[in-house]
């Protein structure tokens, strides 16, 4: 979304007194070493170390502000806290103008300590770095209300636009001061109430009601495809969103995948990752296919089967509660087409070869097509090892974004050349609008009463505020990544050798 003309911060309820009581949330997740490194002891636990706390806060604040003086060269950043207001970069009309309001001084500790551990954790891969870790820690500060921001999307864009300066100066500064502050860890790090809240919202197995609040009626939790009928990828920004736009774009995406898979009436399709049955229903209803679809989610299976019954398609669609690695022997060479929409992010580099080996196992030897879509990293950022960040901790634990090349190589190797690359498309330009549409619907439809039915702990206003902020941060974080080319979204199509292309040349 465009940055506001004036710094209007998104506000949420401050933690109530009841929110500060010991909660059952404390038992929902154990602290990882990294969690210790980004959490803080409460004031009462370090009352005897007031001077040390004051000294460490001043050190953290001054160090970070010094970094920003050299790092921000594109756009304009305003930071306000209890000590005053500071400006970075040069303001120009139309530039990305972001205002951060620091509500809690713990924010400075989070950023400083994240830089220290982040540099060490990320040194094994070029995928991440201080900039990604910085966004990760800002996400935690945002979720628990330590910082308010005029525009989440604007803040993400600002970090990415100044990535080089942020990485160089943050790394240098942290190296100089990390040893000075390390002795204070025991005083400031611990299982605080704020950290317990972060641990709790990271562990939730999201409910169907949550996704109903922001997805289209097809309930596709993946990138839509926008056309001029909806004003294109910027239609919501140029003309404003219209009812039904997201539904039309998601239906277009489903049909695009099925056409790429070259399905015909009577064909049998295998799908890894059912979602809520949107693609399977369309394949059976509009293309006359039979579908076997796999999911690991009991909640998704339940709702998908309910929607399939409502559509009268029980005889054509079978939803299996099954890991893809456990497909039965009678699936061998039984399918005309294979599809998987944004499920590969959960497979992991270690299993790409096995994944495509099983696709090869299930598809017929001739006249068969496989279509996979996935959020991906550009080759320069891809690694089989991916350090913990906001996405991997709070949204999709243990996920791993592939690269297009990694998937193509795995398909070729595991099938012993029985797959031929038919096409590669990059849909990244379509994702930011998809995320904006989801964000609007979340704001309009998600209520504390609705979500507390599944998660009674979220009856606490502060816990609910942190939960909702997590999703708002996700949409902004991912939207900036796609719009700046930091992450991509590929659809890759494979066919059997010598199969006739979907559109012949003669």
Automatic annotation (TrEMBL):
Superkingdom classification of source: Eukaryota
One Pfam family in the UniProt entry: CMAS
Name recorded for this polypeptide: Cyclopropane-fatty-acyl-phospholipid synthase
Annotated organism of origin: Galerina marginata (strain CBS 339.88)
């Amino acid at each position: 979304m465009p940055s506001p003309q004036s710094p209007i911060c998104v506000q949420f309820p401050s933690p109530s007194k009841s929110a500060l009581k010991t909660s059952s949330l404390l038992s929902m997740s154990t602290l990882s070493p990294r969690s210790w490194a980004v959490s803080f002891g409460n004031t009462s636990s370090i009352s005897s170390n007031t001077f040390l706390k004051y000294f460490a806060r001043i050190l953290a604040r001054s160090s970070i502000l010094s970094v920003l003086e050299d790092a921000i060269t594109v756009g304009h950043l305003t930071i306000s806290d209890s000590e005053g207001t500071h400006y970075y970069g040069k303001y120009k009309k139309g530039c990305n103008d972001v205002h951060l309001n620091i509500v809690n001084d713990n924010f400075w500790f989070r950023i400083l300590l994240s830089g220290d551990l982040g540099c060490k954790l990320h040194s094994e891969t070029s995928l991440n770095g201080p900039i990604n870790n910085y966004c990760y820690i800002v996400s935690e500060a945002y979720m628990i209300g330590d910082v308010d921001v005029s525009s989440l999307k604007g803040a993400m864009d600002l970090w990415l636009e100044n990535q080089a300066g942020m990485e160089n100066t943050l790394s240098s500064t942290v190296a100089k001061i990390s040893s000075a502050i390390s002795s204070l860890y025991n005083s400031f790090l611990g299982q605080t109430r704020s950290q317990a809240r972060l641990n709790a919202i990271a562990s939730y197995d999201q409910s169907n009601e949550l996704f109903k609040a922001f997805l289209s009626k097809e309930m596709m939790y993946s990138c839509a495809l926008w056309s001029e009928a909806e004003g294109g990828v910027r239609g919501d920004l140029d003309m404003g969103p219209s009812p039904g736009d997201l539904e039309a774009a998601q239906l277009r995406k489903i049909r695009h995948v099925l056409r790429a898979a070259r399905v015909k009436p009577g064909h049998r399709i295998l799908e890894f990752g059912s979602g809520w049955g949107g693609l399977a229903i369309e394949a059976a209803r509009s293309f006359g296919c039979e579908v076997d679809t796999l999911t690991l989610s009991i909640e998704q299976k339940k709702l998908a089967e309910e929607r399939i019954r409502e559509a009268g398609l029980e005889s054509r669609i079978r939803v299996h509660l099954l890991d893809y690695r456990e497909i039965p022997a009678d699936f061998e060479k039984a399918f005309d087409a294979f599809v998987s929409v944004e499920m590969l992010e959960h497979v992991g580099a270690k299993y790409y070869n096995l994944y495509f080996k099983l696709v090869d196992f299930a598809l017929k030897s001739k006249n068969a097509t496989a279509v996979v879509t996935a959020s991906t990293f550009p080759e320069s950022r891809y690694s089989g090892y991916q350090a913990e960040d906001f996405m991997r901790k709070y949204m999709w634990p243990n996920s791993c974004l592939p690269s297009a090349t990694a998937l193509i190589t795995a398909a070729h190797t595991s099938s012993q050349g029985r797959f031929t690359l038919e096409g590669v498309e990059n849909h990244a330009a379509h994702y930011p609008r998809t995320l904006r549409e989801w964000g609007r619907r979340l704001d309009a439809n998600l209520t504390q009463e609705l979500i507390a039915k599944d998660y009674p702990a979220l009856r606490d206003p502060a816990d609910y505020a942190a939960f909702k902020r997590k999703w708002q941060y996700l949409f902004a974080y991912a939207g900036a990544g796609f719009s700046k080319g930091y992450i991509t979204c590929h659809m890759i199509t494979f066919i059997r050798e010598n199969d006739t292309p979907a559109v012949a040349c003669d």
